[in-house]
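worker-03 picked up job from queue 'complexes'. Input manifest follows; six sequence lines, order preserved.
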Amino acid sequence: MPHNIRVVTPITSKGFRKSEDLEAIGKNVFTVSHSEIDIGPGSIECEYDEAMSLPGTILKIIDAEKEGCDAVVIDCMGDPGLHSGRECVSIPVLGPCETAMHYASMLGHKFSVLTVLERIRPMFENQAKIYGVSEKLASVKSVDIPVLELEDDLDRTVNELTKQAIEAVEKDKSDVMIFGCTGMLGCAESIEKNLKSKGYHIPVIDPVPLAVNSAYILSKLKLTQSKHCYATPPEKGMVGYGEPKIRAVK
Amino acid sequence: MPHNIRVVTPITSKGFRKSEDLEAIGKNVFTVSHSEIDIGPGSIECEYDEAMSLPGTILKIIDAEKEGCDAVVIDCMGDPGLHSGRECVSIPVLGPCETAMHYASMLGHKFSVLTVLERIRPMFENQAKIYGVSEKLASVKSVDIPVLELEDDLDRTVNELTKQAIEAVEKDKSDVMIFGCTGMLGCAESIEKNLKSKGYHIPVIDPVPLAVNSAYILSKLKLTQSKHCYATPPEKGMVGYGEPKIRAVK
Amino acid sequence: MPHNIRVVTPITSKGFRKSEDLEAIGKNVFTVSHSEIDIGPGSIECEYDEAMSLPGTILKIIDAEKEGCDAVVIDCMGDPGLHSGRECVSIPVLGPCETAMHYASMLGHKFSVLTVLERIRPMFENQAKIYGVSEKLASVKSVDIPVLELEDDLDRTVNELTKQAIEAVEKDKSDVMIFGCTGMLGCAESIEKNLKSKGYHIPVIDPVPLAVNSAYILSKLKLTQSKHCYATPPEKGMVGYGEPKIRAVK
Amino acid sequence: MPHNIRVVTPITSKGFRKSEDLEAIGKNVFTVSHSEIDIGPGSIECEYDEAMSLPGTILKIIDAEKEGCDAVVIDCMGDPGLHSGRECVSIPVLGPCETAMHYASMLGHKFSVLTVLERIRPMFENQAKIYGVSEKLASVKSVDIPVLELEDDLDRTVNELTKQAIEAVEKDKSDVMIFGCTGMLGCAESIEKNLKSKGYHIPVIDPVPLAVNSAYILSKLKLTQSKHCYATPPEKGMVGYGEPKIRAVK
Amino acid sequence: MPHNIRVVTPITSKGFRKSEDLEAIGKNVFTVSHSEIDIGPGSIECEYDEAMSLPGTILKIIDAEKEGCDAVVIDCMGDPGLHSGRECVSIPVLGPCETAMHYASMLGHKFSVLTVLERIRPMFENQAKIYGVSEKLASVKSVDIPVLELEDDLDRTVNELTKQAIEAVEKDKSDVMIFGCTGMLGCAESIEKNLKSKGYHIPVIDPVPLAVNSAYILSKLKLTQSKHCYATPPEKGMVGYGEPKIRAVK
Amino acid sequence: MPHNIRVVTPITSKGFRKSEDLEAIGKNVFTVSHSEIDIGPGSIECEYDEAMSLPGTILKIIDAEKEGCDAVVIDCMGDPGLHSGRECVSIPVLGPCETAMHYASMLGHKFSVLTVLERIRPMFENQAKIYGVSEKLASVKSVDIPVLELEDDLDRTVNELTKQAIEAVEKDKSDVMIFGCTGMLGCAESIEKNLKSKGYHIPVIDPVPLAVNSAYILSKLKLTQSKHCYATPPEKGMVGYGEPKIRAVK
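worker-03 finished. Artifact:
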């Protein structure tokens, strides 16, 4: 039976993420399943949105393990529920931001994050600190387009991303680009091409496909998060979320 | 009218925090009010507990501003809702961990955190990174007593805290102690005395009184968090938490 | 009896600091007393000035404790005598730079220092290193006005500070401003207002009132510097400064 | 046609690496081919050995691209030729040390490297610096067995690795183990089991299989090192190595 | 007998380095001898060139000790063979880049490197990391002139170096300049003069004379690299480089 | 005329430093002259002592330049007056601590400081931060002997230094030793020998001879501190120290 990677989209806007886009990532080697959260924000564009998405996301991560998935990828660059979700399950849980930042660190001397709004720049800088790679982060640039409007005018989105990427290369001395919103899925090739036409050979990381493939190889190699530091939570009263049962480490 | 500092206890265990203990902090200069969250965990001892406490905590921070409080202190060393809560209100929001770590950085060359369980050591190390003071953190030590049992045998709690503090001074070269759980409120004097009897003149920071007093002086000096980086969240759909209205910056 | 916070102005220019400006900080809650040094420079604008101010400042810190003060604040952003003064007394000694940098770290993602002369930028960068918060320092900007001329044309001073603050926000991505000279006392409100009119909600920290209030709460909470790392100096010969008696820790 | 990942073993000891061990990594999804260098040391146990292995390794990386391979993995934890090899080809080049350190950073709060000889500890600490993850490195431990003797007494090797791993967990507070020599290939499961029997749930990373799988997903996702910072070397005279032709970026 | 410092030029272009320029450095106090490598690149302008220069350089460092030299300086800012060469001999081995970066750290608050090509900027940033001084590095600037063309139009070289130096001072807030290519030998005085005429009093470090003099004082003070961390390599097979005999520590 | 290096001993205890010990450093190549301060402490063992030594030290540094010396070395590991003295003169000013830390960084992977009293450990850690080499500092160890008693029982001093050095190598993984008090002048050879007899090949740096020789080569190479960041102080009133005339940069 092929490995099954579950992608959890931590927002409540229906239709934002098309399951077929995720399924295509597996390419006959593994399968990709999908779920969305039941409680939480319509999109994630600040610390408050991310905080409100956490309980719903954790519940879906727990469900993924119960339903037999082999690994989980959180479908948001804020990586909501990454540490807390890892405590609750034994299967690997990956965030696209953490994964992309580590791969970007390998692919070049410095990397930049191209995201939606300037206001979430500090969140990425804090994530880089926690993930241990802040020395490799050249800059966080934003296109000033809200998450749910990224697809409204795809040409504008691609143009703005290209413009920011060029600035990242020329001014911030960056060598690798990471999309700073999973809503930019599918645009990497265009940006790479635009950069190449300017003479810049810059890899552009589309974080969700990368994280899903990384989850697959962890599962294949029987590697998962350290249950030493991500130990299963102690049982105790939890008010207001139904009954989130935490499964013990076998 | 005196300044009113609201303490939000981000757990659902009734009676854990006695309001009179908080009121005593103001000492005729300012008043301290108190609230507890309605949804969330019975205590906070891991990333999962903290994540589940966030929505309830943010809602109570929003309430505090609506009810006319002048500042908010979150009553947990995980500082749940610190960044997200700051986005939602204009009054200052302080966390006891962040405040204690910054004051400890001033009071000595290096500081240690004395907490409940070894499993939350990484959380403190990550907080020190985000707060920008990890160079000042000598160590995180734990007494291996769950939060809700700290008061069951107060002598044991004090003895274990003393033992860890001595080790922090002698082995980790630490100069200042911070309590790593707000449930240790009131024990600082005993530990300081025990250390002095061993020849060590070490300040022991009780984080909640310190954070409440810091919140008071911020309010008095008309200082609050930067609404530039903690800007009010954009309005959008939020499913499952009633109606958390975010107040715009005036 | 109310707490008495002593402010020591470490320069020999008479009339630079008006005692009534300091007294106003206490606001019926605590009292603020004042002294100036007897030997040292007319103002502090370089490492040499600061070095020459040290002995005089330490002597006045020792005097403050002898005279029954509850805490000391050094009235210069170079924090001269901060570590050495702490060794000599048991009451808390705070510097406005250290205090402001730690509070600024709490109030925003990154902070900037707005100071008098470009030549003291390295001194602030070194202080941030020693205080353990250099990751939070976005930039040090200067208005190119000598200390003793700040009040000569207050409009110019405010205009230049505003200009540098705007550049700090826009170019250096700063979220909080700190005055980099205690001679700028009283200008914070104007700069904050000017920034707000440009659409920037940025707290501006006036370091002396903040440090005095912080000293007050340390005194109230019976916290002082760690006499473990700031141990009383060993007795020994000292030539040329009269008789600086160091008081032993009780 | 399946992806073909080339493993280059940068030593001249014949038979050290069995091709079938490498081929097994692909598991019907991709193929793994193998080459060894023609000039260089018999094993790599110091900076000198590594330096002498570089030209031979680079030549084999260039050959791999010429022969149509899709990606290259260097078979040594010193990652010899990682940066220089990346300049010479357009296909992705990965090192097991860099890859393992980045994955270990994701799988736990801190990681340790278990290697052969104490004398190469500084090399790993330097690699962690260059790869940007030194904050995540808890410790480098060694079993004091030379590379070419690891297989002589496999029980002893496993016992020593287990002993060092336990010390890494208990003393150095490490959460994830990385094998610090590719000659330890195949021992991960035993160490993980031994740790589990001591109550420690610690992932143990076998770097070569991880790097080979990572190379596969890079190739699949059409990602390669940034040819902006790893630009093709300028053509110039090269004495003494035959004719290493550098292929231009297409 | 005077101390004899050997300079090893790690490229195969004959005549690039004139022995008399090196001999002049000793000034009657010590002698300077010279050798060039037999295998390797014509010049060093990327990681590949540097890698290919390593075996030849190490062999010449071993020869220097055999021939009775008192210390070795590697004549390239990439410091090829610095760590590996130190393992192979007991006499001190210095690199001009490491030496210049440490002296520059002493001479000012921040320093810049002025080098030939933008493509080697990451190499200098990585060197600063390994040498432990990256906090002191303000910037790496390049004049866009290949190594072997530096002397073709010396006026252009000096003009471009001056232009980059001024930018380093004004934009990057740099206080000290280091030449980032040993081919710039002899130009320091001109750049210093040009900077002074712009009002900037900036020391310009010519790395080879500095490293040679530093090697002299190490030799004079009987100091050499720690043979604890740079221990003599274990004996083993080495294919393809003739017979590089490693001398044991006496 | 030979270069004349002035050593300024920043304490008022007569006879502590014998001029002939300093003169011997020059060895027919340059001369070493000596002065002691007129106001200040009998020895330096804390921040207070160091602060009180500053004005006297600066005055002697100014005198050295007036008297035609070519460079100055401050004879104390606290490097009192290093930055402030550099502002006041145009000749190079070096501190033994800064110089030794930078050379130690070159001679090994990590270094340790062996000093007199545990209480000055934080001062060395802060110096390493300011000098930009804290990543290279393995540990600061102390022998618990006051400065002025180091020579009373030289055998005990050497034995204690050896003991601490061995612990630094074995526990702190240190590769190079630095004497942490200039009063240990002349003991390096004994400690090195003792370490060698334990099997450890560890360079032991005697900071004053190293700094004096470094000052000599700076003078010879016409290099001095950057007068850009160490600019001459502005003229202003200075009360209580006679008339310290600051010489303008020519």
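worker-03 released lock.
The mean pLDDT of chain B is 95.
Residues 97-207 of chain B form a domain with the Rossmann fold fold (CATH 3.40.50.12500).
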